[in-house]
Amino acid sequence: MAKKRRERRETDGLSSTQEEVKANATDSQLLKEAQHTAGGSARMSLLILVSIFTCAASVMYLVYRNFPELPDDEMEKIKIPKDMDDAKALGTVLSKYKDTYYTQVLVAYFATYVFLQTFAIPGSIFLSILSGYLYPFPLALFLVCLCSGLGASFCYMLSYLVGRPMVYKYLSERAQKWSQQVDKHRDHLINYIIFLRITPFLPNWFINITSPVINVPLGVFFIGTFLGVAPPSFVAINAGTTLYKLTTAGEAVSWNSLAVLGVLAVLSILPVCFQKKLQKKLE
Hints:
This protein is mostly helical. 79% of the residues lie in helices and 0% in strands. It has helices at 2-65, 72-75, 84-97, 102-118, 124-134, 137-170, 172-184, 189-198, 204-210, 218-228, 230-240, 255-282. The radius of gyration is 27 Å and the shape is globular. The model is unreliable at 1-5 and 9-39 (pLDDT under 50).
């Protein structure tokens, strides 16, 4: 009897061990399949993103094809500015033709700015400075805010459509941390987004890409961006009025302008602080 009991125990122990091994093997297989699926989704998203970028670049090509014919030396200056010298050269050409071909120049400026913002391509800061040189201040400020809001919203929609797998794969930890912050400010998201746009705590491309993943509403996102980019744009546009005195984009920002931006950032979150204090008193 004792031998039979031992044999049964050994058999039960062996079978349980085998079941655990099988379970672990199954879990490992499922994990590998999940990783493979995530990798496949990321690759498919990248393919779709490249296709959308190609279509947008084709639209940009058509916009510039409808631009007036220019001499070769001026045509060389029609490009996305990479530094202040490029911005000055571009400003010289556009200012020469903006009165005669007002619509074409405005459409080309608008389309280029939105294109850069949509695909998070550097260079929009130079276009913001350039707007202060080309247009009256109210129009320049509205134009920059509108282009920034639309471009960021298009980037938001791109991320919503195809960016989730890439965010989960490459930015999951940072996105999770920011999601916790957004949850804390869920009742006053517009103020929070305005604050983030004024301050340099988070890169704009990161805000644009991760916002749909952590369920920031598009309407709130657009309004917060439109209003939030106004103070920094104010500084850039004001610097554009003296474009040819600038040698770098950094010269557009002075200590006074930084102080003003700091004050505006504080003002953007003051209503939230007052609201919280009022709620505490009422409770």
